[in-house]
Amino acid sequence: LQIRLLTWDVKDTLLRLRQPVGEEYATKARAHGLEVEAATLGRAFRQAYRTQSHSFPNYGLSQGLTSRRWWLDVVSQTFHLAGVPDAQAVAPIAEQLYEDFCKPGTWQVLEGAEATLRGCRKRGLRLAVVSNFDQRLEGILRGLGLREHFDFVLTSEAAGWPKPDPRIFHEALRLARVDPAVAAHIGDSYHCDYKGSQAVGMRSFLVVGPEPLDPAVKGSIPQECLLPSLSHLLPALDRLQGSLLEL
Fold first, then answer.
1. Angle, CA 108 vertex, CA 110 and CA 65 arms, to 5°
2. How many domains does the chain have?
3. CA torsion angle for 164, 166, 171, 173 (degrees, to 10)?
4. Which domain holds residue 50?
5. For residue 98, is pLDDT > 90?
6. Are 208 and 110 contacting, i.e. CB atoms less than 8 angstroms apart?
7. What is the pLDDT of residue 245?
């Protein structure tokens, strides 16, 4: 057995926002004549996002929504919760934010991401994206110069199922025409990325962020599958290949 395919999460694995959501929302509101505290908007966004994700999972596609409408509603609810009840005043801000989050300048490539992707391709590994993102992802990756590294980009919007649903991983394996035993997934979410890909028989690597990892989670993951940064991936793959050769 030899790993042939690596699938990648994107947000907070390869890319992150240049500034926190609350600050981004506050800046756009100010440009439209509304003064709202960034911290208040940040808290309101997290609440609005959780509620919307629960009521209308995967952008509400199965309930007749589009991903664009879904996000515009999240922005509207965010400002409402932050004390701005005037939906008409918020509508142009929501449109502007939706467009801005398409733009590469809103995002930054995480340190070591490009070098790691190049290193993986140099080894002959095939790379693909499996992300709970919407249709804007292709353009963002292209604008940041990362799209060229991937055979394909599979979003939950395109697939119809979000991670950790096994069907999105099975669809990625079908597109790549590989068995799960020769594929590995890299992401920052224990539930969606690590456990989700493991459940279909893939190998998994968890990118550990700056926040301390829950001790119960940490204790359930082999040390060699934890990546303090993306620069740790290639050595981890070497160790994995060595263990597979011994089987």
1. 110
2. 2
3. 100
4. 19-105
5. yes
6. no
7. 61
